[in-house]
Amino acid sequence: MSASDDDHTGARIRRERKRAHLTQRGLTERIPYSYSLLNQVECGARQASDEFVNAVARALNINVMVLTGQQTMGDDRLTALVSPIRAALDLYDLEPTGTLTRTAGQLAAAADQVCQQVRATHLRKAADSLPGIISELTHLAVAAPTTQTWQALASSYRTASDIALKLGFPDLSTVALDRMGWAAERASDPCLGAIRQYKRALVYKEGSNTSALGRRLIESGHEMLDGQTSREALAVRGQLHLGLSAVAARAEDQSAVETHISAARDLAERVGGEAGEVHWLSFGLRNVALHAMGASLAMRQYDSALKQARKIKLPPSTLTSRRARFLVDRAVVEMETGLTDTALKHLVEARRAAPEQTRYHPGTRAAVTGLVHMARRTPDTLNHMAAWVGL
Fold first, then answer.
1. Helices 320-336/362-374 angle, 10° precision
2. What span, in angstroms and rounded, lies between the C-alpha atoms of 391 and 388?
3. What is the C-alpha to C-alpha distance for residues 374 and 376, in angstroms, rounded to an integer?
4. Residues 6+ apart with CB under 8 A from 4
5. Which are the contacts of 271, defined by CB distance < 8 A and separation ≥ 6?
6. For residue 94, how far is the Cα from the chain centroid?
7. Cα–Cα distances in Å, from 120 out to 124, 287, 338?
8. Sorting pLDDT into bands at 50, 70 and 90, what band is 185?
9. CA gap 345, 341 in Å, rounded
10. What is the number of other CB atoms lying within 10 angstroms of the CB of residue 325?
11. Which residue has the higher pLDDT, 282 or 371?
């Protein structure tokens, strides 16, 4: 799909590149993508992938939403929301000041509650609470270190990464994951360390070099779990295989996708049920099915992805974040297969379930853009959705 005006991602990339006084050649020297691809994206001949846009945003040192146009909350409001998190992440190597108001157990419970809020897609509420939790846990970890405190701090850093990614701040997510590794090492918790490698690898999902790096990161996570046989470790191993399937799908390696989906399915059967208590991974057979569909979508096997999507039935207990993500992915698949009415229906359903997450999800914008270009007459519902995502 080619954009017909100057308000598309490629045009915004071109504008920001010029503001940075870079030529196209100069920018491609900073990103793992070719000059030809950049040129096609900027002129609107090719749609930019999420990974491409994130790479450009990092290279230009700007918020990714400047490039996607998803700044409907407003730059100032977004910055104000994440700035306290950024400040809390910088406390890790400073001497603690002030007094503690909560015990280690209370802080661990608070960290778990914020993680739950993110899964329920209450992003602003979670972002408001998180800096204080990180500050107190950092203080406590230095003053009276325990395994529980370090684990809670590592979990809080992971939550900071999740919030940053969902709001379009990949640079802040990277910092948070670095801090997560620092805390997980002090907690001597291999499962947390492995999850951190899984999270890092999700950034590297396209292109030969980045795919190789993604594989190395996840394989290092597997190495951390050597000798671990607990249900927790099995669930984390399964999630690592799902991460490898995502990396392989973006590299269009069908054989590797099948290998890792199969390995994850075997582990899910050993774990039994949905392991929702394991670091909020909710690893299980349903999670495997969702990733298999996602892999087909990433490889542009839309007919196969649609068949898989129609077989997936999410129970009422499904995490809101997962349900909304599935609905957006299904809308993209339906848009690509010409099912425009059902695609719009699922976008509306995703918006109703998780408005914050859905608004900022790149798939939402891709689906809405495709529907607008395909429509002979744009229905009011689609017009409202387009305005809502900033088109």
1. 30
2. 8
3. 7
4. 44, 373
5. 231, 234, 235, 238, 283, 284
6. 29
7. 11, 17, 31
8. very high
9. 6
10. 20
11. 371
CA distance 161 to 195: 12
DSSP state of 280: T
Structure tokens belonging to residue 382: 């689609």
Q: Which residue has the tokens 């790479």?
A: 55
Q: Quick: pLDDT tens for 322-343.
A: 999 999 999 999 999 999 999 9
CA distance 337 to 117: 34
Residue 302, judged by CB atoms within 10 A of its CB (0-12, 13-18, 19+), counts as middle
CA 8 to chain centre: 22
> Please, are residues 290 and 312 in contact by the beta-carbon 8 Å criterion?
yes
Nearest one of 167, 211, 180 to 71, comparing CA atoms: 167
**Is the pLDDT at 204 greater than 60, yes or no?**
no
Rg (CA), the chain: 21
3-state secondary structure (DSSP) of residue 283: strand
Domain ranges of the chain: 1-69, 74-185, 189-308, 314-391
Q: Which helix (H) or strand (E) holds 367?
A: helix 362-374
CATH homologous superfamily of 1-69 equals: lambda repressor-like DNA-binding domains (1.10.260.40)
CA distance 241 to 280: 16
The CATH code for residues 314-391 is 1.25.40
- H or E segment at 176? helix 170-187
Kindly state the average pLDDT of the residues 258-286. 88
Burial of 202 from C-beta contacts in 10 A (0-12 / 13-18 / 19+): middle
Residue appearing with tokens 């387009």: 386
Nearest to 91 by CA among 39, 48, 155, 153: 153
Numbers of helices and strands, H then E, in the chain:
21, 0
Q: How confident is the model at residue 62, as a pLDDT?
A: 72
Q: Which two tokens stand for residue 53?
A: 């846009």
